[in-house]
Amino acid sequence: xxxxxxxxxxxxxxxxxxxxxxxxxxxxxxxxxxxxxxxxxxxxxxxxxxxxxxxxxxxxxxxxxxxxxxxxxxxxxxxxxxxxxxxxxxxxxxxxxxxxxxxxxxxxxxxxxxxxxxxxxxxxxxxxxxxxxxxxxxxxxxxxxxxxxxxxxxxxxxxxxxxxx
Length: 165
Description:
Elements: E1 5-11, H1 16-34, H2 36-39, H3 41-61, E2 63-70, E3 73-80, E4 84-92, E5 96-101, E6 116-120, E7 130-136, E8 139-145, H4 149-158
Parallel strand pairs: 6-8
Antiparallel strand pairs: 1-2, 2-3, 3-4, 5-7, 7-8
């Protein structure tokens, strides 16, 4: 049994929506503070809530994904602000139908199929993405992620017919 343990982490790029959310939340706090002389304690209460909104916005827009592979199972975790970890998904290579690079000819049979899409990518246009198709109960799940070569080699050693590099 192959019991390789590999960790790989990618940081999600900050996109325009995240920047707009951060700026909007900061502006909301500024407006609440400016309204304090007019509305007194109401504005003070709203500004405290807005400060928590700023904290939440900054935490939720600073995201990293960690891919953890151990003996035929790959787990993907989401790490927010280097503080909170949330398990996103996991897939077992025994249940996977195929793992291939995005745009590979072996994925053409899955193009028009109805499936649940899950993306765990950095947002970098130059990054090499891989697509996993896994059957879960009656649903087909499509997982898009960006593994490194070491992770792919370990998966290919475990299941050479399903993993295409």
